[in-house]
Design goal:
By secondary structure, the chain is of the alpha+beta class. The chain has helices spanning 2-20, 87-101, 121-131, 145-155, 194-208; strands spanning 31-38, 41-48, 55-57, 63-65, 73-79, 107-113, 138-141, 160-162, 170-172, 175-179, 185-190. The strands form four sheets. A five-stranded mixed β-sheet has the order 7-6-5-10-11. Helix 2 packs parallel to helix 5 (194-208).
């Protein structure tokens, strides 16, 4: 009986250690302290940089704003449909993310075109169809060029530019940027690297288990 009890204690302790060994992802971007009074007491909270309001159009012609991402985890990247270099590799790897989460509703993918003049809604729809993307898990977004470049570099921390000296006429970094339910940047992954994309999928699952704070309820 004592041996059985001892074995149960070991199992319980192992389970507790395993449960408490929960991975927490870092929060990137600028932050500042905010002091406020709650129930008569002064409390200081850390306020993190978040993705600002935006408005784009997806491959179905639907208007998409930050409100469509309320309470959602999402991955953002930047591409253009005529890209002859890294985009095809990125989108093949992003398909792994899409296939991992297309059955649920709390994970989205946003691919912003950096060539909105050419990448019209019909072009984006044709591109999505060719990849086998359907439904509303993965949106290919078109918007004003200035808005796209601003949100890429200032908020998603991805460099993009037009460059007539390179094939395709545009240069951009191939990062997949992970955004949590509070619209904070939680990770950045090389979209051309399968190992990093696998890590992205694992980190999305980690975010799915994070408790919802008061600001996201």
């Amino acid at each position: 009986m004592k041996k059985l009890f001892g074995a149960m204690v070991i199992v319980l302790l192992w389970s507790a250690c395993k449960f408490n060994n929960t991975k927490t992802l870092p929060i990137y971007g600028n932050r500042q302290a905010e002091t406020k009074v709650v129930n008569g007491q002064t409390v200081t909270d850390t306020v993190y940089q978040t993705i600002p309001p935006f408005k784009f159009v997806n491959q179905y012609g639907d208007s998409i704003s930050e409100k469509n991402l309320d309470g959602k985890i999402y991955v953002a990247d930047f591409f253009f449909t005529s890209c002859p270099s890294i985009c095809p590799v990125m989108q093949r790897n992003m398909l792994n993310v899409y296939n991992a989460f297309k059955g649920g509703g709390d994970v989205k993918i946003l691919s912003y075109t950096i060539d909105p003049k050419y990448d019209s809604v019909p072009i984006l729809k044709k591109y999505a169809d060719k990849l086998g993307v359907a439904g509303n898990t993965w949106w290919f977004l078109q918007g004003k060029k200035d808005d796209t470049y601003r949100i890429a570099e200032k908020n998603y921390l991805v460099a993009v530019s037009k460059d007539s000296t390179v094939a395709g006429g545009y240069v951009h970094q191939g990062y997949f940027v992970l955004i949590d339910k509070e619209k904070r940047v939680r990770g950045s992954y090389d979209g051309t690297n399968q190992e990093q994309v696998a890590q992205l999928i694992a980190d999305i699952k980690t975010l799915q288990t994070e408790p919802v704070t008061e600001t996201t309820k």
